[in-house]
Design a protein that fits this description.
Length: 399
């Protein structure tokens, strides 16, 4: 299944690079049209709002139909969004394009992550698989905005959005390398599904959602508060760029290393350990005066948060029923995107009233409490209704 895994990574890069490129191009286009910063905020909110609204239906669709139908819908949404932005330079059209591209990326992420778990032979292999999958957003975050920015400067916004539309189109082609899952019996498809909210009855799943929220909030606090703290210290833009680059390089590096050492990682304590390390870094950040010291902290943070994302995904598939993995991934996606819609206002209010240092320390306290909860996540016995997953037990026919 190595070629199928490569195809999954490439598909996520395509969808994620499209939305990341659009996240750069859309606000710049709004400003070029003469609209205010409020309009920029409206467009950026649309990127996160619709993935949160449609996450549960996307998860159920993946559980019922496997990979290919949700992936086609995801690529179609992203393609339509990019083409709409390329052809209609208007605020309403850009809002709709942001909603379509965001929903497409969210749909695709759920289907891709659910399918990736089917390629794992055991727990260590699951961590390895999700480490490769976790590389896709990092690669896309570099490629998508860079491509959009260069094309905007040389050919204009319409050309940039048109080029971004090629990425989901390529995703549709590459997706054919992923094997089809066997169709579920018609009786199973027609059976009334239990409420997705019933997953919250699983204590370990609730704790894992809390850990996932803390990780997402940590990324956002770091990206929001670090520039403010750097300006207070009198750092130059290049110094702040070096600090953020140290975080990005460490985060990508640890995801490359994990697949080769997955068998030796203490997975039971990895979640709690990463949260406690992040807590310590956030305590230290406001006390540092040197850009080099902050870069060292940023690299440490990148290692911790870079390792924790594939661990969260692997653990999620251990603590939830196999037949509801899509819904579980949808809950994770919904909480992240819902948080992204509220984050700028909340952080802005705290930063304006109390300062960046207080924001770091409040987050550190939350991370410490989250680390204690992470230690209580039970993955030994799995979730009710879960059976061991091995590729030889999968019934697939190759496309």
């Amino acid at each position: 299944m190595r070629s199928a895994l490569v195809a999954l990574v490439a598909c996520q890069v395509g969808l994620h690079a499209c939305v990341q490129g659009a996240r750069l191009a859309a606000p710049l286009s709004v400003l070029r049209l003469g609209h205010s910063e409020w309009a920029v905020g409206l467009v950026m909110t649309m990127f996160a709002l619709f993935p949160a609204i449609f996450a549960i239906p996307a998860g159920r669709l993946a559980d019922r139909h496997g990979y290919h139908l949700p992936l086609r819908i995801a690529a179609g949404l992203s393609l339509a969004g990019a083409l709409l932005a390329a052809s209609v330079p208007h605020l309403i059209a850009l809002c709709a394009a942001a909603a379509l591209c965001g929903a497409g990326s969210g749909f695709g992420m759920i289907a891709i992550q659910r399918t990736a778990s089917r390629f794992a032979r055991d727990e260590a292999d699951r961590l390895r698989v999700f480490s490769w999958i976790a590389l896709a957003p990092a690669v896309a975050g570099l490629f998508g905005p860079m491509m959009a920015g260069v094309l905007i400067d040389h050919l204009g916004f319409s050309a940039a959005f048109a080029a971004l539309a090629l990425l989901p189109f390529a995703t549709l082609v590459i997706a054919q390398a992923v094997p089809h899952e066997s169709r579920a019996p018609v009786s199973a498809l027609n059976r009334k599904q239990p409420s997705a909210w019933g997953l919250l009855r699983l204590p370990s799943f609730r704790r894992l959602l809390l850990v996932n929220w803390l990780v997402s909030a940590s990324w956002d606090v770091h990206g929001f508060a670090l520039p403010i703290l750097g300006v207070e210290r009198g750092f130059s833009a290049s110094a702040l760029g070096a600090v953020l680059a140290a975080y990005a390089v460490a985060s990508m590096s640890v995801r490359v290393v994990i697949p080769f050492v997955a068998e030796r990682l203490p997975r039971r304590h990895l979640l709690a350990g990463a949260l406690f390390i992040t807590c310590l870094v956030f305590v230290l950040y406001p006390l540092l005066q040197s850009a080099w010291a902050m870069a060292l902290c940023a690299a440490t943070l990148g290692l911790a948060l870079g390792a924790i994302q594939p661990t969260i995904l692997a653990t999620l598939h251990q603590v939830t029923p196999r037949e509801r993995h899509g819904e579980a991934l949808a809950f994770r996606s919904m909480t992240v995107h819902a948080w992204m819609t509220a984050m700028p206002l909340l952080f802005g209010a705290i930063g304006a009233s109390a300062g960046a240092a207080v924001l770091f320390w409040v987050m550190a306290a939350a991370l410490g409490l989250g680390g204690l909860q992470a230690r209580r996540i039970d993955t030994d016995n799995g979730a009710p209704g879960r059976r061991e997953e091995h590729p030889q037990q999968e019934e697939r026919t190759c496309s």
